[in-house]
Structure formats: structure tokens, C-alpha cells
Design brief:
By secondary structure, the protein is α/β, with parallel strands linked by helices. It has a single domain, classed as Alpha-Beta Complex (DHBP synthase). The chain is built from eight helices and nine strands. The longest helix has 13 residues. It is globular.
Length: 191
Amino acid sequence: MEKLAARIAAYRLMRGGVIAYPTEAVWGLGCDPENEQACLELLQIKQRPIQKGMILIAGCIEDFETILAVLPPDQYRRLELGWQQQHKTGAVTFLVPDILDQVPYWIKGSHSSVALRVSDHPVVRSLCKEFGGPLVSTSANKSGKLPARSKVIVEKYFGSQLDFIVPGQLGGASNPSKIIDFSTGQLVRAS
């Protein structure tokens, strides 16, 4: 069933849809990060200002190859190690400089860096594999409301505004990912 759900979700993403899916701690909303219209629709559904930017989530570091290819090998290894240690340290999102300015404004918002996360969650990994790359990831809630921790709350918040809700369970983490500025090492959001 999980593989079929991931295929349906990937199909909807490729057609410009907005979906909800479980992550490590909360439900997320996602879409194709290269589809401007889908991203703007997601922002409208969530009532999130575009200036804030959104996270890109992937199932493996290779999904970010085009963004990370310009990093020196030692910095690439630091990112890789940070994501590999998540099972011990908790989910982590890195704010990585977009050196070549290749990530669109509807993802970065008013920032010069892009928020990247490699997930350990099996549903996220399956989604990214079926879709063929990273997805937008933002918590499933309207701005100012608590993030959804169940499918029922996702449905309550968004009803028929979503194109698909991927079945699955949260990963058991109590808080969303911590966010670290990769350039400075500064903790931007604790988990």
C-alpha cells in the first residue's frame, strides 16, 4: 500500500498538486519545488508569506546534487555527516548558501540561502524516490496554528484544498527539525 500511495502522490505532484504527508514529528505540506504555480498555491493554502521561504526535503543527499555541487568536498562531507547522524541527534535542516543563485525565489523567499533537509522517514524517502527528487516541505498548518500531528487535523485544517494525503504515521520525534546555519554553525531553531 505504501508504494502505491507514493506513486499516486508523485503523480499528483508532477501534475502541480499540493499534498500532505507524515514526517518525523509533524505532518508536512509539499509540492514540486520547480513548479512556481504549485508553490504559490501551497503558500496561499497555508497563508504563509513568500518572504519566509520554505524547506526542501529529500530522501538522500544525492537529490541535492545540483545545489551542493559547488561546495568544497570538506563542506559536502560535513553536511553528509550531519544528516547521517540524525538518528542520534534528531532531524536537522541546514541553511546552505545558494552560491549560484539557482534556487527560485518562491523557495528561498527573501533569503540568500536555501533550507535543505535529508529525511530518515520512510514515507518521505519513498515519496522523493517516486517523484525523482526533493519536495517542498512546510508544516501542515495555517500560519499561527499548531502544526498537524494527525491526518484528522490535516483534514480539519485543509479539507478539499489538498490534492492528496499520503497515509502513514509520524516518525516519533517530539519536535520539528532543528535548523542550523551551515555557514556559521549557529542554531536558528532548536528541536
